[in-house]
UniProtKB/TrEMBL annotation:
Transmembrane region(s): 6-25, 84-106, 112-131
Alphabetically ordered keywords of this record: Membrane, Transmembrane, Transmembrane helix
Entry protein name: Uncharacterized protein
Superkingdom: Bacteria
Length: 150
C-alpha cells in the first residue's frame, strides 16, 4: 500500500513539474497579464498584412510558429485568442442576435405593446452581436507580448 501511494505521488509530481511554455500578454497601462498556453488556437495579424490562424508553438523567446510559419513577436500588430467553442458558436450567436434585432425593429413599428416587446428584442440581440465581435482581441497599442519559457 505504501509503495502504491509513493508511485501515485511520484506520477503526480512529474505532471506538476512538466508545465508548458506560455505566451504572456500584458496590458500596457496596468499590471494585468494573460497567459496563453502553447498549442492553443490564436489568430495573428502581422505588419506585412498577413492573417495567420492556427495552433501555435513557441520556437524561442522572441518567436512563435503557426502553420509552419515562424512569426516574430515584434512583427505582430494584433492577436486574437480563438477557442474551438468560439469558432463554432460565435457565428450562431451573431446570426441569432441579428434576427432578434430585425424582429425587434419590425415589432417596434407596430406600436403599443409591440414597441415594448420589440425594444426588449433589440436590447437582447445587441450583446449577442457585439460581444463575439470584440472579445479576446489584443492590439499592440494596448498590450505587450512576451514569452515565458519554463
Amino acid at each position: 500500500m505504501k509503495q502504491l501511494f509513493l508511485l501515485f505521488f511520484f506520477l503526480f509530481s512529474i505532471s506538476g513539474i512538466s508545465q508548458t511554455n506560455v505566451l504572456v500578454i500584458q496590458k500596457l497601462n496596468s499590471k494585468f497579464t494573460k497567459e496563453i498556453k502553447e498549442n492553443k488556437r490564436i489568430k495573428v495579424w502581422t505588419k506585412d498584412g498577413q492573417k495567420i490562424y492556427g495552433r501555435f508553438t513557441i520556437k524561442d523567446s522572441t518567436s512563435i510558429i503557426i502553420e509552419e510559419k515562424v512569426i516574430l513577436l515584434e512583427d505582430i500588430i494584433k492577436m486574437k485568442k480563438k477557442s474551438l467553442f468560439g469558432t463554432i458558436a460565435n457565428p450562431i450567436f451573431i446570426v441569432y442576435g441579428s434576427f432578434m434585432i430585425i424582429a425587434g425593429v419590425v415589432t417596434v413599428g407596430s406600436g403599443g405593446w409591440g414597441a415594448i416587446i420589440g425594444g426588449s428584442f433589440i436590447i437582447g440581440g445587441m450583446p449577442l452581436v457585439l460581444i463575439p465581435s470584440i472579445s479576446n482581441k489584443y492590439s499592440i497599442q494596448d498590450w505587450e507580448y512576451s514569452i515565458k519559457i519554463r
